[in-house]
Amino acid sequence: MIVVIQRVANASVKVEDKMVSSISNGMLILLGISNDDSEEDIIKMTNKISKLRIFNDENDIMNKNINEVNGEVLVVSQFTLYGNVKKGNRPSYIEAAKPDIAKPIYNLFIKQLDSLINNKVQTGIFGAYMLVDIVNDGPVTLIV
Predict the structure, then answer these.
(1) Fold designation for 2-143
(2) pLDDT tens for residues 62-110?
(3) Most C-beta atoms within 10 A of its C-beta, which of 8, 43, 79, 143?
């Protein structure tokens, strides 16, 4: 599992010119799922995400987690995080899970994260071509 977390002032997802989800002040999570990911991986990752102290406190130090700032979360599936470009110029996605394996893991990830976050977790549409609009706050970007 590869997760890219961006602290955002706002973020949104459109599919076919239709707004699907939008958030303000929170995290955009790009989620890449591999063939080896398990429920144990999901639990570890979602616990880590819910406790990450990447939001500023009153002294302007990153010392607060998503729940302490009442932040929102938007999760977008992104198999291209597993794009391997070591050989040639066209990425290989052999390490990315196929949709029939990835979608249940994606759904479980969202369900588990939703149980740990104060606000309802927003999502894109699994497997859809999406336009993701991001205003990165900081910028703060982490790869987990």
Answers:
(1) D-tyrosyl-trna(Tyr) Deacylase; Chain: A; (3.50.80)
(2) 999 999 999 999 999 999 999 999 999 999 999 999 999 999 999 999 9
(3) 8
Angle at 130 between CA 13 and CA 98, to 5 degrees: 125
DSSP structure string for 39-92: HHHHHHHHHHHHH---EE-TTS-EEE-TTTTT-EEEEEE-GGGG-B-SSSSS-B
Marked catalytic residue, from 46, 80, 123, 141? 80
CA distance 11 to 32: 18
> Domain-by-domain residue ranges, the chain?
2-143
Q: Determine the residue type at 63.
A: N
Active site residue 46: no
